[in-house]
Each structure stands twice: as structure tokens, then as C-alpha cells.
Amino acid sequence: MKAKLCTSFAFLFICQMFLYAQSESTVLVDVDHRQSVSLNGDWHTIVDPYATGLYTFHHEVRKDGYYLNGAAEPGSDNLVEYDFAKSPTLKVPGDWNTQSPQLFYYEGLVWYQRDFDYQPQAHRRTFLHIGAANYKAMIWINGQHVCDHEGGFTAFDCEATQQLHAGKNFIVVAVDATRQADGVPTATTDWFNYGGLTRDVALVEVADSFIDDYDLHLNHERTEVGGWVHVQDASPGATITVAIPEANLSVTAQLDSSGNGLIRIPATGLQLWSPGQPKLYHILLSAGEDKLEDEVGFRTVETDGQNILLNGKPIFLRGISIHAEAPFRGGRANNDKDVETLLGWAHELGCNYVRLAHYPHDQRMTRATDRLGILVWSEIPVYWAEHFADPAVLKKAEQQLSEEIRRDRNKASIVLWSIANETPNTPERTLFLKTLAGDVRKLDSTRLVTAALLVRTEGHTKVIDDSLGEALDVIGANEYIGWYEQGPQGADTTEWKVAYNKPLIISEFGGDAKAGLHGPETQRWTEEYQASIFKHQLPMLNRIPQLRGMSPWILMDFRSPRRQLPGIEDGFNRKGLISDQGEKKKAFFVLQKAYKEGTIGKGE
Ligand code: GCU
Asked: How far is CA 496 from CA 376, 449, 533, 541, 542, in A?
């Protein structure tokens, strides 16, 4: 099989990645409640910047690639130039950058391998679940190709029933973190490109025919829980039962020829989910041999003119933006402690809402926001200068969108799907994003579509009239008065003009401060300067009639290779209200006071 020659090595792996028999990955809904065998732990790794494990020196796909997990037999003279068993290990889940100083800035191909014992069960199918692999992944089990995936922040599941056998098995995953101009995100971002198997990996077992997706939500009138359940490979005439034992509710529906069952349950007596009362119901779904349990809250969210209505009542979103970075130890956040610390700080700040930037976070985060009653803005990484004219890029964004929505569509806390951040107002971009907005509504018509727009300036007036606003339910806008433009006082004389009669969320504002650096309010990088930005921003924001929420940038300092000021940034974006080591800066208390005293926000 002759490989198409690619220009640079870096992209070698990517271009030819799909030469193997393409097998689709899917997303199993509610997978964290499924019976599973964790594959987390220490995996052997080989760092392979030249993709030697996959290609010959003539760029031919190797027939004896590292995916075979070969090793030189003692005494044999066959030439094998790798041996996973003797290679160093890395922890999974985890990015490789913060686990090994040599790999800190590494953005290329790393091979992961581990052995595991497994006993396939009769009438059971097995999927390999990967919570996230940044950026591209190719997977083999026992030397046989299982699937490929592109996108570093969404979960995917690949059927591996055929490749697994009883007893000793091995898995090999090639992960390539090379940034790509035609990727999603594109090559330039303001966050650290952590590579690797960054979230949980497990083998998940299901019945021969199984529930792979479902949607349960309260109707607009809040009188009925409706939705559907999809059963993969359902036998004709099969049924699905959905029960809410605590509310003594249960319904059985016939599946249609494509395995879909429509669900309608009267909502009488159901307690609604809200930040003040994050009521979750234990749900049981059963289709033949397959059983699934979940924790689901019921609420409605909609807009009414300039208001956001939660369960029919106006609400103001007092929020903060968060990157999925681990407090204290750094690297990608991927465990309960990370989530607890980040959301604990947001709670302490007085938030009822968080913007999870700029990509879907670990499912632990959205499970926790469901439990804690914190509303969520969830986003796919269509960020800055994407290749909007390239249909292949739209396809990648659509894939990530459907993966994001499939994983989290039953999370009551998620109220906003954001399709983009700070993208240039060009016709290609607007067409691209209007298509995505349409995709969101097809995939999930129960939530609000938004995006973080850039703002125009006319003298002392900030104007939001980006044509994408037409396609959004809620307008998001980022502004940096006091940091990238003007001084903090600039906010005092700034007026706002919004071209849409829709709710507005200021999705970002703020400025940098080095924790512990003190000085006059006029001195950049000091805590006093950052606090001054907030002191001037809050009254300005309160003057915007349709402001219905805000998520200042950002909860915690985070790594970004774009931030290199020695002694201050040192590789970190310092706009956090808290440092990466947990030090609360003065601005934290300015915002906390406004949120706790309710001096910011209208419409409630
Ligand atoms: C932008 C962008 C963020 C970035 C921030 C900053 O608005 O959305 O990702 O980190 O500004 O410059 O600090």
C-alpha cells in the first residue's frame, strides 16, 4: 500500500494516520455508571518524534510497527529496536508534560503500552473507553487496530470485543499532540498544549444490545419528562423501561426499527433542579439484558427577551471562567480532588455559574456541577483563527460538538453550549458558526446556544453587533478594559450598545497580577491594579441593561507558552483571582463581596 508522501515529519503521523482500516469511535452515554475494568495506572511509553514506530525510512507504513508490542527474543538475532517492557512509564490519566522534565515542551508522538488480564463474558460486548487523548490517538489491542480519534477534550468509546481474548492482553495507543493549523483548536491558543492520555481509560462491558444514548428532559411547560432512548442492535419488538423510583414513576416504550423509544412521563411531584436546590433523581433504564443507572436533575432553561429564565424565573449568572488545570501540582485536571478544589473556590467566590473554557472538561466536573448546583457554560475549542473555509475543519468541530453533547446532554447544570471564542468576524467564519449553531439545535433543543464574541469600539462606546449574534440565544462578549486597552478607570466612561434584544453575558474581563506583588493601583501586575480593574468594571457592567451574567477571566493562574515575562509570568497567564498555588489575590475579595452582597446583576 503506497503511502502519500507528506512534507514535514511532524505531520507524517497525522496525514497517514488513517491508512489503517478506519473504524469509528462512538460515545457511550453515562459510561461512568457502567460496569468497567479500569486501565488507569502506569503505562510503558516510547517517545517517538520521527514516528519510527509506524513508518519505514521511505514513509511506508511498517508491517512490524510498535503496535505489535514486539521484543527481541533472548538468543534470537532478529533485529527489534524497541521494547515497551524495558521502557519508562507514565501515569494514566495524566499529561506527559508535567510527569517528565524532558517532555515538558514535547509536542509529538508518544506510544503508550500496557498489559492487562481480561475474561470476556458470554453475550457481553466490550468497549474501550478513553476520557480524552490529546490530540490524535490510534489504538491497537493485541496488535489489531481498534480505532482512531481526533480531538483532545472529548470522550470516545471503541468496540474491542473482536480484539480481546481470555487471559493476558495488551493495548498500544499512539498519541500525537502535534498542534495543527487545521485542527480544532488551531495551532495558536493561550493555553498549554498538554499531551497524552489525559483522562480515564477503561474497558466497559455492555449487553449484546445496549443503551448507547438517551435524552430525558422536562418539557417547556414543566408538566412532563420527555425524550428518547436509543438501544444499539435492539431486537425487533424490544422495549425500553425508564423508571424514577423515588417519584414512583415508570414507563415502558416500544422501540422502533432503528432502536429508538420515545419516553413521556408525567412530571407531577418532581422537584425541579436549581442552584439553590440541585435535586438529582436516581434513574433506571432497562432494555432487555442491558441496565443503566444515572443521576439526573430536571429543570427548564430558556430566554425571554433580555432575560434568562431557569424554571420560568429570571436568573443572573454570577460566574467565573475556569481552565481544566490542576491546582498546586499543575498539568491537566483529571481527578475528584482537582474538581473539588476548583469548584470549592468558585463556591467560595459566591458563584452560581462557571464557564468551562475553552473545551469540554472532565466528566467529573459536570457531575460535580450537577451535585453542587452550579450552572455551566460548556464550549468546544473553536478558538481564534480557525481555518473556517475548510470543510474538513467544520467536520472536526461538528464531531467534537456531538461528542460533547452526547456525553453531557443529561446534565441539568449545563445550560449553555458555546460554539466559539473570539473568532474573526469574516463571512466564512460566520457561515461556519451558523452551521454549528444549527447543529447544536438539532442535537439538543433544550439548551441555549452562545459564543464569546469580540467587541467593536466607537469612541467611548463598546458595540456588540457581530452578525453571528443573530444565530445565538445568548450573546457572550469578551472585553479587557483596564488591561489590553485603557486603564481601569476607562470603564467609568464606557457605554455599551448591543444590537440584539437578547441576554448578554460578559464571558471574559480581567487583568494580570502576580500573587504577593503589591504596589499603587496604577502599577501593572500588582494585586492592587487587578483589584482596581474589578472595582471599575462592576459598576460599568451594572449599567448594561441586558447584562444577565458574567464569567471574569479567570479563577486560577494557568500555564500558557505565550506568557514569558520573567519574574512575573514565567510561563503563566496571571489573570487568575487565585494563583496556581492557591494564593487568593485582592481582586478575589472584590468580586466575592459583590457576589455575596448581590450588588452585581439584574433580572432576578
Ligand atoms: C482571551 C482568550 C483567553 C485568553 C485571555 C487572555 O480573551 O479568550 O483564552 O487567555 O484572553 O488574554 O488572558
From this structure: 25, 22, 17, 9, 11
pTM: 0.95
- The closest residue, in CA terms, to atom 3 on ligand 1 is 190
Which residues have CB under 8 Å from 75's CB, separation 6+?
none
* Residue 508, ligand 1, Cβ within 6 A: yes
Q: How far is the CA of 478 from the centre of ligand 1 (A)?
A: 9
Task: Find cell 471574569 and name the residue.
Answer: 552
Ligand 1 near 111 CB (within 6 A)? no
Residue 127 near residue 206 (C-beta atoms within 8 A): yes
Please state, in angstroms and rounded to a whole number, the distance separating the CA atoms of residues 39 and 131: 12
3-state DSSP assignment of residue 10: helix
Extended strands (E) in 479-562: 495-498, 504-508, 547-550, 558-559
Distance CA 71, CA 74 (A): 9
pLDDT number for residue 504: 98
Low-confidence residues in the chain, pLDDT < 70 = 1-23, 602-604
CB contact set of 433 (below 8 Å; sequence gap of 6+)? 382, 388, 419, 420, 423, 451, 468, 471
Residues 408, 359: Cα–Cα separation, whole Å: 13
Rounded CA separation 490/540 (Å):
10
What pLDDT score does 21 carry? 46
Q: What would the grid cell of residue 12 be?
A: 507524517
Angle at 595 (CA atoms; ends 527, 416), nearest 5 degrees = 105
Strands 572-573 and 558-559: antiparallel
With a 6 Å cutoff on the Cβ, whether 422 touches ligand 1 is: yes
Q: Each residue of 101-149: pLDDT tens digit?
A: 999 999 999 999 999 999 999 999 999 999 999 999 999 999 999 999 9
First-to-last alpha carbon distance for the chain, in angstroms, is 64
| 104 secondary structure, DSSP code | T
- Grid coordinates belonging to 347: 463556591
Note the pLDDT of residue 74: 77
How many angstroms is it from 317 CA to the middle of ligand 1? 20
Best residue among 322, 553, 563 to mutate for probing ligand 1's pocket (most ligand atoms within 8 Å of CB) is: 553
Q: Which residues contact 261 (CB under 8 A, 6 or more apart)?
A: 228, 229, 230, 231, 239, 240, 253, 254, 255, 287
Amino acid letter, residue 459: G
Buried (b) or exposed (e) across 55-79, using 16+ Cβ within 10 A? beeebeeeeebbbbbbeeeeeeeee
Residue of 312, 380, 305 lying closest to 153 (CA atoms): 380
CA distance linking residue 551 with residue 322, whole number of Å: 9
Q: What are the tens digits of pLDDT across the range 487-524?
A: 999 999 999 999 999 999 999 999 999 999 999 999 99
Count of CB atoms situated within 10 Å of the CB of 21: 9
